[in-house]
C-alpha cells in the first residue's frame, strides 16, 4: 500500500502545499530553484520515507524545519508534530500551509537552543540543518530520557559526520528514494 492510499487526504494536501511552495519560494528562499520542478520527489517523498519509523502516538519535533520538511509532511499524515524554525517569515509560511491544508501542527519561531518546552518528544527529526553532532547536542533538552530517537535525513557526506558519533548509538539506512542519501536513526 502506498502512502497516498494509506493517508487518503494526503494527495490533496500536497497539491495545496506544492502550490504554496511555488508561490512563496522565490521571496522566502524555501527550496532551491533547481528543485521546484521536482517538489514531490525531492521534498515530499524524501520526508515520507520516515513514516516506517514512526508510531501514531509519537510526539515529533522537527528542528530547523525551514519550508516544513519533514515535519509538515508528517503532520499531514496525522502525526503530532512541533516544527521549530528561527526565521519568522518561514514560520508565517508554515502557518499558512497549516491553515490552507487543514493540518494540525504546532509551529514555533525560535532558535532550537532557546526553545523551552514543558513536553518532551519521542522523535527528533531534521533535514539539511546542521551536523549530526550539533543536532544531537542542541536537542538533548527536548527528548524523553528513556526512549527517544533521532531520525536525520543526510546526504552523501554523512560518513564524515558519523565519525564524531559513537557507533553503538546510530544505524545508517540507505534512502530508498534518493541516491546518495541516508536516514540516520540515532538512539539518545
Automatic annotation (TrEMBL):
Xref: Pfam families: GidB (PF02527)
Record field: catalytic activity: guanosine(527) in 16S rRNA + S-adenosyl-L-methionine = N(7)-methylguanosine(527) in 16S rRNA + S-adenosyl-L-homocysteine
Keyword Methyltransferase: yes
SUPFAM superfamilies: S-adenosyl-L-methionine-dependent methyltransferases
Keyword field contains Zinc: no
GO CC terms, sorted: cytosol
Primary enzyme class: transferase
Keywords from the UniProt entry: Cytoplasm, Methyltransferase, rRNA processing, S-adenosyl-L-methionine, Transferase
InterPro entries: rRNA_ssu_MeTfrase_G (IPR003682), SAM-dependent_MTases_sf (IPR029063)
PANTHER family tied to this protein: S-ADENOSYL-L-METHIONINE-DEPENDENT METHYLTRANSFERASES SUPERFAMILY PROTEIN (PTHR31760)
Family recorded in the similarity comment: Belongs to the methyltransferase superfamily. RNA methyltransferase RsmG family.
Listed name of the protein: Ribosomal RNA small subunit methyltransferase G
Amino acid at each position: 500500500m502506498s502512502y497516498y492510499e494509506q493517508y487518503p487526504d494526503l494527495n490533496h494536501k500536497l497539491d495545496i502545499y506544492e502550490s504554496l511552495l511555488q508561490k512563496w519560494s522565490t521571496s522566502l528562499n524555501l527550496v532551491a530553484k533547481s528543485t521546484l520542478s521536482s517538489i514531490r520527489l525531492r521534498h515530499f517523498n524524501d520526508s515520507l520515507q520516515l513514516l516506517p519509523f514512526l508510531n501514531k502516538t509519537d510526539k515529533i519535533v522537527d528542528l530547523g524545519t525551514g519550508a516544513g520538511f519533514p515535519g509538515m509532511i508528517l503532520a499531514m499524515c496525522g502525526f503530532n508534530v512541533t516544527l521549530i524554525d528561527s526565521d519568522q517569515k518561514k514560520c508565517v509560511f508554515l502557518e499558512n500551509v497549516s491553515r490552507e491544508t487543514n493540518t494540525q501542527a504546532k509551529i514555533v519561531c525560535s532558535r532550537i537552543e532557546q526553545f523551552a518546552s514543558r513536553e518532551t518528544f519521542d522523535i527528533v527529526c531534521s533535514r539539511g540543518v546542521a551536523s549530526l553532532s550539533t543536532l544531537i547536542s542542541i536537542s538533548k533538552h527536548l527528548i524523553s530520557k528513556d526512549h527517544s530517537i533521532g531520525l536525520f535525513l543526510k546526504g552523501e557526506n554523512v560518513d564524515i559526520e558519523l565519525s564524531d558519533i559513537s557507533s553503538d548509538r546510530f544505524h545508517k539506512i540507505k534512502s530508498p528514494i534518493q541516491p546518495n542519501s541516508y536516514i540516520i536513526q540515532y538512539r539518545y
